Amino acid sequence: MISADYLKRIASWSRGLSEQEIGVARAGIVEKSFKANEFICMRGDDFEYWTGVVSGLVRVGNVSRDGKAISFTGLTAGAWFGEGTVLKNEPRRYDVVALRDTRLAMMDRATFHWLFENSVGFNRFLVGQLNERLGQFMGLLEHDRMLDATARLARCIASLFNPILYPDGARHLEITQEELGALSGISRQNANQCLKTLEKEGLLRLEYGGVSIVDLERLRRYGE
Predict the structure, then answer these.
(1) Please, which residues bridge with residue 62 across strands?
(2) Per-residue model confidence as pLDDT tens for the chain (224 residues)
(3) 3 state SS of 49
(4) Which residue blocks in 3-82 are alpha helix, DSSP H?
(5) Which long-range contacts (CB under 8 A, 24 or more apart) does 184-190 make?
């Protein structure tokens, strides 16, 4: 069983729970590691866990019948996902892939529902999480239809610094250009050119193995 201190480090939602609720949560969580490019779950799977990213990088998306890959979002350390599927007790409607070596914390359905039915603090977190996720996906739909590649990449990067969905994020993102391309739906070569444009405009700084954010608010509004 994971310790209470460790749970609070990897799950911001646990910091508002009572000692009893933390004990229940600890007992219902296991950790599992996935290799780069390994499927965590596939569309149609009965993957009965609410899941948090302890380390690594995860892509949520689908592949159309003609083979086109569609990315919904990327998930970095501190992000928890899949609450809608667990609440509705339905198969996954999307693929979840580890873009690099990734470690996940996985809470079983029974523990999730116990917290849902008994913890006010947990429910407050879920309401905020679901509301933020809805806004994120509405924004992604708008960006895909209205913005060019550079603006889509800028908004994609900004979304990885959402303080509700990624509460423990720093202003440096360890991510490759290939991974950013996969998350924003563009090629690595195109991502490289777009990143250089954003760096030239003073919004971010390219560094070995990642990017550092210089102006997050301008990234969030880029393309308006």
Answers:
(1) 70
(2) 899 999 999 999 999 999 999 999 999 999 999 999 999 999 999 889 999 999 999 989 887 676 666 777 888 899 999 999 999 888 888 899 998 999 999 999 999 999 999 999 999 999 999 988 887 777 666 666 677 889 989 988 988 888 888 876 667 888 888 888 888 878 889 999 999 999 999 999 998 878 999 999 999 888 87
(3) strand
(4) 4-10, 19-27
(5) 184/71, 184/149, 184/152, 184/153, 184/156, 185/69, 185/70, 185/71, 185/144, 185/152, 186/149, 186/152, 186/153, 190/149
Spatial distance between the Cα atoms of 205 and 127, rounded to a whole number of angstroms:
34
Specify the pTM. Answer: 0.80
**What is the DSSP-derived secondary structure letter of residue 170?**
-
Strand order in 95-98's β-sheet? Answer: 39-41, 95-98, 58-63, 69-75
Q: Do the beta carbons of residue 104 and residue 31 sit within 8 Å? A: yes
φ, ψ of residue 53 in degrees (nearest 5): -90, 115
Alpha helices (runs of H) in the chain, residue ranges in sequence order: 4-10, 19-27, 83-88, 109-118, 120-146, 149-159, 177-184, 188-200, 216-221
Give Rg (Cα) of the chain: 18
Query: How many Å apart are CA 47 and CA 40, to the nearest integer?
Result: 9
Report which residue type is found at 8.
K
